[in-house]
Every structure is written in C-alpha cells, then in structure tokens.
C-alpha cells in the first residue's frame, strides 16, 4: 500500500516516521517545508502539494490542527480529492467535529473515495513508541484495509462504529482528560495546606488508585495548570466546545465532567464555555 501523510507536527511526525520505518511506500507534504528536514534520513518522498501526494498514494493520512485545515487539504483547489485514485481512502487523524468527516465522505463518494475517522490519543512519545490509542469510525472493511498502517503507530487500534464514532470517542476522552486536569491541580494545591510537598504528593498518588494521565501532566508542569495553558489550552477548549455542542444537540447531559473541564479551561486562561451546564440532581 502506498501511503501519503499530511501534518508533521509533534504527534504527526513520529506517526509518519513509524509508517516509513515499517516499510510502506510513503509520501509526505507539509505547509512548512522545514518540517520535512527531519525525514532526510528516511526513504520517504516529498510532494509539492496535497494533490501531488494523493496521486502517489492509496491511503492518505491527515493529521492537521482543526476542521478548517482538514477541509482545506482535502477539498481545496490543490486538495487530496483532486488527485486520489478511485478506491483510495482518506484517514482523518485530526480531532474534528464528526459532521466534518461526514461532509468529506459525501464529497469523496463522488470521486469513488472512502473516508474513515481515526483520531489518536497519547502524545508524541506514545507515537514514537508505537502505542497511540487509535479510535476509528467508518465501514468495517475500510477500517480493516487501513489497520496495518494504523498499527505501525497505534496499539490498540479500536473500531468504535460508523463514520464519526472515532471523533466522538476522542472528544469524550478529551473532555475527561480536561476535567481530570482540574481535579488533579486542585488536589495537589491542597498538599501545602497540610504540610506536604506538592511534588511528593503527586509522586505518591501516581502509584495509587488516584493515578491518571492528567495527574502525570500536572506533576510534570510543576503542580499547576499554568505551564500547560499556552500549548494545550486552545486545543482542549476546541475539543470541549465541540463535545458540549454535540451533547446539546443530542439533548445529553455531560454533567460534572463538563463542569470540571470548564473550570480547567478557565484556569488555563481560555475562559469559561458560554453554556456550561450544572450537574443534574440525582433522582
């Protein structure tokens, strides 16, 4: 299988390298040519545009920042759909609204192209080590077609259901992660009140039943959310807002998770969501 990869950021670059090193015929494209320099020691080819990359690919993996970026590289004048062969597949690794994937699938169908959503979780280190969580949505046969590529950087690779299901799973994951950031930071802030060092408490809890990925991130940031604000804050706000909108449309109650996530975003300087619900009373 020939693979194209677009989006060589802190997570996308190690994902692409894993694909190349697994022996797949791989073509890369990036808006910033400098990001391609890290692949000079590999067999990966470089394309001058998304359409050129698509023409050399059977599967195109897209790992850019947001919905607008995904739609631009896929449906733009020099986009993937212009060059991808009939029977080709586009895998959306970006975290976006599930409706974005469905719109892309409708447009892709006209070209004889399939779309799967396959957002990932775990960060750059997990990508480098081949242990990202990959949450896929789409037709089961198409997901199976992509699986050998996804397994180069992902373990586990899970099929969540129809197109868009992977995105919903990722957004729920990020809602819980954001909520956990707030509760972890609040808990560590209590430590000095009892004469315990924040770092010592974090180290202890990370070996106990209260351990979480979020607590590890807060510990690495010195026990507060401040160092995470600039890098993670805007992306987490995007994801929590998407999930809040989906919950409202589905008339579903996100409850305490959304309230806690809202508090974490506010403390990272992202402001509160405009319509964060209060937890529903227990019956």
UniProtKB/TrEMBL annotation:
Coiled coil: none annotated. The keyword Transcription does not apply. It is an enzyme of class 1 (oxidoreductase). Signal peptide: none annotated. Residues 164-256 form the 3-hydroxyisobutyrate dehydrogenase-like NAD-binding domain. InterPro entries: 3-OH-isobutyrate_DH-rel_CS, 6-PGluconate_DH-like_C_sf, 6PGD_dom2, 6PGDH_NADP-bd, HIBADH-like_NADP-bd, HIBADH-related, NAD(P)-bd_dom_sf. One of its GO terms (molecular function) is oxidoreductase activity. PROSITE patterns: 3_HYDROXYISOBUT_DH (PS00895). Residues 2-161 form the 6-phosphogluconate dehydrogenase NADP-binding domain. It comes from the Bacteria. Keywords: NAD, Oxidoreductase. Its EC number is 1.1.-.-. Belongs to the HIBADH-related family. PANTHER family: 3-HYDROXYISOBUTYRATE DEHYDROGENASE-LIKE 1, MITOCHONDRIAL-RELATED. This is NAD(P)-dependent oxidoreductase.
């Amino acid at each position: 299988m020939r693979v194209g990869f677009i989006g060589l950021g802190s997570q996308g670059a190690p994902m692409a390298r894993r694909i190349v090193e697994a022996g797949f015929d791989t073509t890369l494209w990036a808006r910033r040519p400098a990001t391609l320099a890290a692949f000079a020691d590999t067999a990966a080819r470089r394309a001058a545009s998304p359409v050129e990359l698509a023409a050399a690919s059977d599967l195109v993996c897209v790992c850019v920042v947001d919905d607008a970026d995904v739609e631009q590289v896929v449906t733009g004048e020099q986009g993937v759909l212009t060059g991808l062969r009939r029977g080709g597949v586009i895998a959306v690794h970006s975290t976006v609204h599930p409706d974005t994937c469905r719109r892309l699938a409708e447009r892709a169908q006209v070209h004889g192209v399939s779309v799967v959503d396959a957002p990932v979780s775990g960060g750059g280190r997990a990508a480098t080590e081949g242990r990202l969580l990959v949450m896929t949505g789409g037709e089961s046969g198409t997901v199976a077609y992509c699986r050998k590529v996804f397994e180069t950087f992902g373990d586990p690779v899970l099929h969540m259901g129809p197109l868009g299901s992977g995105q919903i799973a990722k957004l729920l994951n990020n809602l819980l992660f954001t909520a956990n950031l707030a509760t972890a930071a609040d808990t560590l802030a209590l430590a000095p009140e009892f004469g315990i060092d924040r770092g010592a408490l974090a180290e202890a809890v990370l070996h106990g039943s209260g351990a979480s990925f979020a607590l590890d991130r807060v510990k690495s940031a010195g026990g507060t959310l401040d160092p995470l604000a600039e890098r993670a804050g805007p992306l987490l706000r995007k994801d929590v807002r998407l999930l809040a909108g989906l919950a409202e449309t589905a008339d579903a109650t996100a409850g305490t998770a959304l309230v806690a996530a809202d508090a974490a975003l506010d403390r990272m300087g992202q402001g509160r969501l405009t319509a964060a619900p209060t937890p529903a009373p227990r019956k």
